[in-house]
Structures are given as structure tokens and as C-alpha cells.
């Protein structure tokens, strides 16, 4: 996987932490901590992304690829990884340089720490780069808000940001995912996606702290449909949720950014992603007229797709979310660690 900015790499690392928590099937904590020093000549931000999910497979870091055009002064390319699995007796510490060629990249093993009989698992990834704390905080906050649509069960998220040179600048936000979820921990991901997407719509794209009672006085205004397909050859899963609301615009005082068009959100491997051309083509090929709809245009904007309809009833609005992911995820093992060193 290739990244063109440190920010997108950070979002990927956060997504990987979500994945490890999801696969642990236990109550987990995911923390993103941003520390900055504004008094230095080149203010930089140190970011720590930690989770208490299953231990990491180092191959996920070995395969990372970074495009270095024009940003060599912002980041030295170093990642620090601390990880352990529940069966390990130590916390293993590593250092990885993404400036090295991926085919010949070596992972430097640092001194490990004994767990002294304690039973826990988790991973922490650290990196430092030149960036505005406010810009990075806004991006991470928005990313976490979208991640909540997936409603991955039993994950508490902590976001902390602080300028060490400014007293009282500490910001802390805790996201309690699934606080109203009634499904068991092993429920299908699709059920969580449906619930999270409904909540996303009811709070106008997570811009509100509670459901908008003026637009949605009751859940009966939402008609929800969903589907799931799986390719057995590569274990690729595609899930889709479509929500239709029927609300009088005379009673609707809130403005939608997409207007009367349908915004299609896309997730790939449990992470917000730019919708691919293959999905754009697939939506064009749907026989919408069979469902009483006439698609007259489709465009891409800010990573999402916008669908434009002809003669859509004035009180009707359509929302769509797609999620494509692989069922398998690399599992940590000491043998794999040794093979990569």
C-alpha cells in the first residue's frame, strides 16, 4: 500500500488499530495522542497510535510504501513499533525506516521488555513529523467520526492533543462506540454498518451530538435496505446499505451539503476510502428504473460519489454506504517476527 502524505499514513495506522481491536473480540481501547511543541524552530507533532487488540504482524509495516516527492523535510521516515500478543512473554520493540526500499527494507529489533507474567496484548506505533497540531487534530477527529459509522463493537476511542508549551491547551475527546448497540459481539459486520449509518444520517453526518428531532421525529421516517456478497476465491466481502428518508422539506430546516443528490460513502478494509472507479461503474450499471429511479448523473467529490436523480419526489432523499473488506487479517507470531529480522 502506497501513501503520498504522512497524514494519510496516520489514518491507515489508525484503521489498522481498529482492525486489531475488532479481531480480538474483546473490549478494547484505542488511543490517538498528539503532542506538539510550538516553541521549537520547526514545530513538529509526535503521534502515538496505540490499541489493546491482537498483536501486530510486522508484515503490515514491511509492505508500506511511501511517495517521498517534496516532503523529505517534513518526516524522517522512521516508525517505532511496540507490540505483543497475549501468549508472548515480552513486549517486542522495533524501528522501521520507510525511506528504505521496500524489497530490501529491514526491521531493526530493539531491546524488548519482559511482561513479568502479565497477560495482555496490544500495539503502539509512534512517529514525529512537521505539521500544524490544529490541522492534524481536525483531520484525525473527522476520520474517527467516519470510523464510527462502522460501529465496530466494544472499542472505546480516546483522542488527546496538547501543545506542551501552552498551559491549558490539552484537548481530550472520548468516543464510546456502540453505546446503544444491542447486537452481540459476534454479530455480522453488516448489522453494525446499518446501525452506524442510520445514526450518521440522524445526526446529519455526525455534525450533531444527538439525533435531529426536527428532521427525524421518529425512526419510522427511514426505510433501510442492505445486502452482502462474498467472493470465495479471495474472501473479499462487499456490503451495502441504502437508506431512504421521506420528510417534508417544509418541515426540514436543516441543509444537506449534497443537496438533493445522493452521497455515497465508501469504506475499504474498515477504513474511509476514496470510492474506486469499479464501484462507480457498478452503480452506473444498476437497473435503477426497476426501482422507480432514474439516474442522470454520477460524479466524484472529496472521495465520495454523488448520484443525481431525475424526477425524485421532492420529500425523498437517498443515502448509500459501501464497505469492501477481506475477511482474513495477518496474525502476529514470533516466527514471523524472526523471519523479517
TrEMBL record:
Q: Which domain of life is it from?
A: Eukaryota
Q: MF terms per GO, please? A: protein-macromolecule adaptor activity
Q: Which GO terms describe its biological process?
A: meiotic DNA double-strand break formation; reciprocal meiotic recombination
- Gene Ontology cellular-component terms listed: condensed chromosome
Q: Return the protein name.
A: Type 2 DNA topoisomerase 6 subunit B-like
- Taxonomic lineage of the native organism: Eukaryota, Viridiplantae, Streptophyta, Embryophyta, Tracheophyta
Amino acid at each position: 500500500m502506497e501513501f503520498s502524505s504522512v497524514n494519510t499514513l496516520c489514518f491507515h495506522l489508525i484503521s489498522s488499530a481498529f482492525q486489531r481491536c475488532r479481531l480480538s473480540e474483546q473490549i478494547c481501547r484505542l488511543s490517538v495522542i498528539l503532542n506538539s511543541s510550538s516553541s521549537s524552530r520547526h514545530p513538529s507533532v509526535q503521534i502515538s497510535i496505540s490499541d489493546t487488540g491482537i498483536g501486530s504482524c510486522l508484515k503490515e509495516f514491511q509492505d508500506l510504501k511511501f511517495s517521498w516527492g517534496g516532503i523529505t523535510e517534513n518526516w524522517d521516515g522512521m516508525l517505532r513499533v511496540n507490540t505483543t500478543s497475549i501468549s508472548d512473554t515480552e513486549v517486542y520493540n522495533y524501528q522501521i525506516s520507510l525511506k528504505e526500499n521496500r524489497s530490501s527494507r529491514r526491521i531493526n529489533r530493539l531491546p524488548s521488555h519482559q511482561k513479568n507474567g502479565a497477560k495482555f496484548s496490544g500495539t503502539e506505533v509512534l512517529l514525529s513529523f512537521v505539521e500544524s497540531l490544529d490541522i492534524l487534530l481536525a483531520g484525525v477527529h473527522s476520520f474517527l467520526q467516519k470510523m464510527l459509522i462502522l460501529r465496530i463493537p466494544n472499542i472505546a476511542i480516546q483522542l488527546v492533543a496538547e501543545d506542551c508549551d501552552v498551559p491549558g491547551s490539552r484537548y481530550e475527546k472520548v468516543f464510546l462506540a456502540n453505546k446503544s448497540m444491542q447486537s452481540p459481539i459476534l454479530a455480522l459486520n453488516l448489522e453494525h454498518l446499518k446501525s452506524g449509518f442510520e445514526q450518521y444520517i440522524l445526526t446529519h453526518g455526525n455534525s450533531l451530538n444527538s439525533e435531529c428531532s426536527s428532521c427525524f421525529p421518529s425512526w419510522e421516517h427511514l426505510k433501510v435496505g442492505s445486502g452482502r456478497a462474498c467472493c470465495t476465491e479471495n474472501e473479499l466481502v462487499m456490503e451495502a446499505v441504502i437508506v431512504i428518508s421521506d420528510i417534508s422539506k417544509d418541515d426540514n430546516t436543516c441543509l444537506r451539503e449534497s443537496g438533493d443528490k445522493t452521497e455515497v460513502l465508501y469504506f475499504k478494509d474498515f477504513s474511509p476510502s476514496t470510492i474506486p472507479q469499479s464501484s462507480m461503474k457498478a452503480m452506473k450499471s444498476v437497473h435503477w428504473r426497476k426501482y422507480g429511479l432514474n439516474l442522470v448523473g454520477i460524479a466524484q467529490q472529496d472521495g465520495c460519489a454523488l448520484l443525481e436523480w431525475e424526477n425524485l419526489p421532492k420529500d425523498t432523499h437517498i443515502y448509500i454506504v459501501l464497505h469492501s473488506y477481506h475477511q482474513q487479517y495477518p496474525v502476529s507470531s514470533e516466527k514471523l517476527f524472526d523471519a523479517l529480522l
